[in-house]
Amino acid sequence: MAGKKQFDMNTALDAAMIQFWRAGYADTSVDDLSRATGLNRSSIYSSFGDKDTLFLRCLNRYAVRYGDKYDAALSCAASEPLAAVRAFFDVTLERIADPELPDGCLIAQSAMAIPVLSPAVAAHARQALGFQRLRLRAALKAGRLADLDADAFAVHAAAVNQSLAVMSRSGASPAELLAVVGVTMGALSQALRARN
Predict the structure, then answer these.
(1) What is the residue-averaged pLDDT of the chain?
(2) How many other β-carbons are positioned within 10 Å of the β-carbon of residue 167?
(3) With contact defined as beta carbons under 8 Å apart, do 75 and 84 qualify?
(4) Cα–Cα separations (whole angstroms), residue 74 to 43, 87, 149, 168, 191
(5) pLDDT tens-digit profile of 87-127?
(6) What does each C-alpha distance from 147 to 80, 132, 152, 179 come to in angstroms?
(7) Cα 69–chain centre separation
(8) Does pTM surpass 0.85?
(9) Contacts of 92 (CB under 8 A, 6+ apart)
(10) Distance (Å, rounded) from C-alpha 194 to C-alpha 162?
């Protein structure tokens, strides 16, 4: 049928997201996106807009996909805060261990590229990082940590989570990543015991 798109938008978005994730925003050209999605340049522009617009859609897609998993992991924080934060880290560790996905994290990678991103894309990357901290803070407050402790552990856990992605991209072993999580979980366990 004339004028009807002959490709699946979600499949194309996933392919573009993986390309950005694997190579980064600055090192991904429209030609790279064309090869990854199987779409010609004009189809990319007419369907998704320019590179920045497509990247924002991919960043949103990634943030929603993993944000939903993080929310599910943290859902038991009021009754089991330690288990909730461990489940939060498990989402990241499972993503890192998935051989079908690139190493690292699209959001962490985007945050490191902020100097070369357009102001709109840079603001979006900062916002995505902020959501992770807010999500953790809400869970820790639900677990009855005092405001200052919840704030401090939220910042710390978000930083650890992003560092897991960076470490995995640089070749850290699963045992090393688990050791990093273990130190954080030990400190959080002490803080939770001290609140009683």
Answers:
(1) 92
(2) 18
(3) yes
(4) 40, 7, 17, 23, 18
(5) 999 999 999 999 999 988 999 889 888 998 999 999 999 99
(6) 18, 17, 9, 27
(7) 10
(8) yes
(9) 105, 161, 164, 165
(10) 27
Could you give the 3-state DSSP secondary structure of residue 179?
A: helix
Query: What is the block-wise mean pLDDT of the chain (196 residues), using blocks of 10 residues?
Result: 65 96 93 94 92 94 94 95 96 94 91 90 91 94 92 96 93 96 96 81
Output phi, psi for 133, to 5 deg: -65, -45
User: Residue type at 5?
Assistant: K
Question: Residue 104 in 3-state DSSP?
Answer: coil
Q: Are 12 and 47 in contact (CB under 8 A)?
A: yes
CA separation for the pair 31, 17 (Å, rounded): 14
Give the per-residue pLDDT at 194: 84
C-alpha distance from residue 172 to each of 6, 110, 155, 176, 177 (Å): 41, 20, 22, 6, 7
Structure tokens at 8: 């699946």
Return the structure tokens found at 98.
């998935």
Report the C-alpha dihedral over residues 27, 33, 35, 38, rounded to 10 degrees. 170
Token output for 172? 């850290």
